[in-house]
Amino acid sequence: MKKCKSLSRILALDLHPGRFGYVVLEDSTELLDWGVRRNYRGTKPWRTVLIKKRLTSLLDQWEPSLVLVNEVARCSPQIRRIVTVIRKEARRRKLIVKLIGRATVSGTFGEGRPIRKYEMASLLAERFPVLHWELPPKRKIWESEHYRMSIFDAAALAVSCLKQMSTTAAMLTRTAPILGN
Amino acid sequence: MHQLPRIMARRELKNYLRTYRKRSGLAQGDVSYLVKARTKGEWSRYERSMRQPSLRTAFACEEALGVPVTRLFAGLRESVGNETIERMQRLESRLKTTGNTMNPAHRLARKLQWLGQRLADRLIPHISPA
Fold first, then answer.
1. Which of A38, A71, B47, B95 supports an S-S bond with B18, CB 3.0-4.6 Å?
2. pTM of the entire structure?
3. Is residue B49 part of a domain?
4. Contact present, A85 and A48 (Cβ < 8 Å)
5. Which of chain B's residues have a Cβ under 8 Å away from the Cβ of A31?
6. What is the biggest distance separating any 2 CA atoms in chain B, rounded to whole angstroms?
7. What is the domain range of residue B55?
8. What pairs with residue A31 in β-bridges?
9. How many domains does chain A have?
10. What's the total number of domains in chain B?
């Protein structure tokens, strides 16, 4: 039987070419840290060094056991570079990296029906009141997305993953007596 | 929304200064002024556990953030506690084997009684009444 590793903290990252939003969740309910790290400007090798520096500071401070990353269908070269940095760093620290797809996230929040990003962010702000004042105003159709939405996307990743894990655990508990017989 | 189960075992971090500072909405500069740190860089070093604040600063943090020191520095408190318990066990066994020639027997007995009591309290934690 596969042994279940106990997880204490989760770092969820919402990757974008120019920035990443992050949340750190402890005990599946407590939000420890959240924010957006951005501005990886400069020449290419230097940019990778900067990304690594920003990621390492997060990993050093929060010591997560699981890193969640959003699965991007058509990765830009910059996102691919960030993912490579994350994977390398995770391997070095023996962390689990999990990719969460968009479908999983919308399935968790929408429960079958399509859900808008802002609705999802509002639900998360209700769930984590500390995020309430981070919620940007609703985007007008001619405006670009507010950078703080990345925080909510990262939080959505963490919540989806936790729900997925709890569903799996519940299924295992239900099937355990059957398997035992 | 679904209520998520508490499925994880927890190992405390050294400190939770950043978490409670961010919850309060205060910036590093604001808190460094409140706790009388020299610069916000100094506060940042406390947050990243690169420096340990003085007892005065720790009490100021408690007052400014409204969270007990034991919670703010949960990991540090845990590690110091464990280290002290280990030392108490070592002292107890040392007193039992070699005795204490400097002190009379009743003093030694009192020391052993105290250490035994403290260790028992630590190993069997109190269950607070509901």
1. B47
2. 0.81
3. yes
4. yes
5. 19
6. 67
7. 17-72
8. A25
9. 1
10. 2
How many Å apart are CA B117 and CA B124, to the nearest integer?
Answer: 10
- Residue A27 exposed, middle or buried by CB count within 10 Å (0-12, 13-18, 19+): middle
Nearest Cα to A8, choosing from B47, B80, B3, B12?
Answer: B12
The angle at the Cα of B36, spanning B35 to B40, to the nearest 5 degrees, equals 85
- Could you give the CA distance from residue B72 to residue A40 in angstroms, rounded to a whole number? 32
Cβ-proximal residues to A181 (8 Å cutoff; 6+ apart), any chain: none
Q: What's the domain range around A109?
A: 9-176
Judge if B67 and B21 occupy the same domain.
Answer: yes
> Which domain CATH number covers B27?
1.10.260.40
Rounded to an integer, what distance in angstroms lies between the CA atom of residue B1 and that of residue A109? 8
How much is the pLDDT for B73? 94
Give the one of A33, A109, A159 whose C-beta lies nearest to B19's C-beta.
A33
Q: Specify if B6 maps to a domain.
A: no
Q: Are residues B119 and B105 in the same domain?
A: yes
Regions of chain A short of the pLDDT cut 70: 1-7, 39-45, 75, 171-181
CB-CB under 8 Å, B8 with A123: no
Q: Do B7 and A165 touch (CB under 8 A)?
A: yes
Q: What is the ipTM score, two decimals?
A: 0.80
CATH number (domain holding residue A39): 3.30.420.10
Across B17-93, the runs of DSSP E, i.e. the strands, are none
**Structure confidence by residue, pLDDT tens digits, B7-35:** 444 578 889 999 999 999 999 999 999 99
Whether B16 and A162 lie within 8 Å, measured CB to CB = no
Query: Is residue A84 a part of any domain in this protein?
Result: yes
